[in-house]
Amino acid sequence: MVGGPRLSLEEKRKRMLDIFHEMPEPFLLKELERIGPKQKGIVSQSVKDVVQSLVDDGMCHCEKVGTSNFFWAFPSEAAVKRKNKMMQLEKELAQMQAKQKELGDLIANAQLGREHTEERGNLVEEMTETEALWSGQQEELKQFKECDPVLMHRKKEEAGVAKDAANRWTDNVFIIQSWVRDKFNMDMDEFNKFFGIPAEFDSV
Fold it and tell me: In terms of C-beta density within 10 A (0-12 exposed, 13-18 middle, 19 or more buried), how is residue 122 classed?
């Protein structure tokens, strides 16, 4: 995977975690510097910084054994951390929704028979800030849900089904091509041109 597009730090972190999860065992840094470029397109010079950032964020373990540092991260740990983070975000969202409703009620009461007051202005400002925080939490929760292992597995299965279906239709086209070629002595290039089949048409 050498020579690919330049990766962002977040993409490098994700790919490094993929290495840990696909091969759940402890690694030496020099092993990761060899595997990273070969399997995930992470340049060896940046592997150390990427791994250290994962350690700093608690997403990867580092243990010194003798004179060597070993690094590892198991898939089950990542799933548990995502689940706990989602639960925390959902709890915070519920609290903010309750706070938003409370502020809305206070504003509604403040408007009854009153002109604009300092109290009402403060309440409006506080409610606006709460809505902004609530929107931010929703976006963060959405990102964690997109990384949910169950959802990702389901999407992978759906992609597999779609791929199999596409390949079945491709095989059917090839069968028809062979039949037409043998039955009518038609050249395949002529067949493809007549039916609008691109030259690169093949199984996926």
Answer: exposed
Q: What CA–CA distances, in Å, run from 13 to 16, 33, 57, 71, 74? A: 5, 13, 11, 14, 15
Cβ atoms of 71 and 26 closer than 8 Å: yes
Q: How many CA atoms lie within 13 A of 41 on its CB side?
A: 13
Cα separation, 151 vs 172, whole angstroms: 32
Q: Taking residues 77-90, report their average pLDDT.
A: 67
Stretch 139-145: mean pLDDT: 71
Q: Bridge partners of 72?
A: 61
- The model's pLDDT over 8-52, given as tens digits with 9 standing for 90+, comes to 889 998 998 889 888 888 999 999 999 999 988 999 899 999 999
For the record, the structure tokens of 185 come out as 């002595």
Q: What's the pTM?
A: 0.38
pLDDT tens for residues 170-185?
666 677 767 777 777 7
Contact present, 127 and 133 (Cβ < 8 Å): no
Q: Return d(Cα 173, Cα 181) in angstroms, integer.
A: 12
- Dist. CA 160–CA 98, nearest whole Å: 42
* Residue 179: both structure tokens together: 């039949």
Quickly tell me which residue has 């595997």 as its tokens.
35
Tell which residue, 138, 55, 62, has the closest CA to residue 94: 138
